[in-house]
Design brief:
By secondary structure, this protein is an alpha/beta fold. Helix content is 53%, strand content 14%. It has ten helices and six strands, in the order E-H-E-H-E-H-E-H-E-H-E-H-H-H-H-H. Strands 2-1-3-4-5-6 form a six-stranded parallel sheet, sandwiched between helices. The radius of gyration is 17 Å and the shape is elongated. Keywords: DNA-binding, Phosphoprotein, Transcription, Transcription regulation.
């Protein structure tokens, strides 16, 4: 894949450049703030060399609040074919929820600690670059925990909550079956029960399903 990196930590940025290069990916640019990131995307769009994915930190100069998030949202609006993987030091529910108001395709949210787990980071990046969703299990867990007190999440069984958490991370039914050691038909049965209990019947498509569930979790 062709990737653009944006993080104000030189150490992390250069580490990711080396990691991705070793894995055979092309790092088209590595910058330290959101303005530079948008400028790189604008030049790439003009040249017809847009990246497959962007990795961006939530907090970057000058205020270190939400510059990266705002850049991510702008990229999704202006160049929807570019996948966006957002990195954050902590689970920041407001930021995760804002990202999830998108169409759910080619977007991900990982904690920075996940970067050191190379296989998981690369898997998330590749899924985002392929137009799929990839959300950190800890982000999903906290969203589930914070909303479990309110119905209708409280009506879900333990197994349905497990399936929901896997769906929220962006996994397909086939992948969920492998991860939970159950049949794919069982996953489909649990998924239908989840959507029925959450009032989400009628949604179609893998990404729409993930988006609908996560929008509910973010309320």
């Amino acid at each position: 894949m062709r990737v653009v990196l944006a993080d104000d930590s030189t150490l992390l940025r250069e580490g990711l450049v080396r990691l991705l290069a070793e894995e055979g990916h092309e790092v088209a640019a590595a910058v330290g703030d959101a303005d530079q990131l948008i400028a790189v995307l604008e030049r790439a769009a003009e040249a017809g060399t847009k990246p497959d994915a962007v990795v961006v930190d939530v907090r970057m100069p000058p205020t270190h609040t939400d510059e990266g998030l705002r850049a991510a949202v702008q990229i999704r609006e202006r160049w929807p074919g570019v996948g966006v993987l957002v990195l954050s030091q902590y689970v920041e529910r407001r930021y995760a929820t804002e990202l999830l108001t998108d169409d759910g395709e080619g977007v991900g949210y990982l904690l920075k600690d996940r970067v050191v787990q190379v296989d998981e980071f690369l898997d998330a990046l590749e899924r985002v670059g392929a137009g799929q969703a990839a959300f950190d299990p800890e982000v999903v867990r906290q969203l589930l925990t914070r909303t479990r007190r309110s119905d209708p999440l409280g009506t879900l069984t333990a197994r349905e909550r497990e399936v929901l958490a896997e769906m929220a991370q962006g996994h397909t039914n086939a992948a969920i079956a492998v991860r939970l050691h159950i049949s794919q038909s069982a996953v489909e049965k649990h998924a239908n029960a989840i959507f029925d209990k959450l009032g989400l019947i009628g949604t179609s498509g893998y990404s729409r399903r993930v988006l609908a569930v996560l929008r509910f979790l973010g309320t």
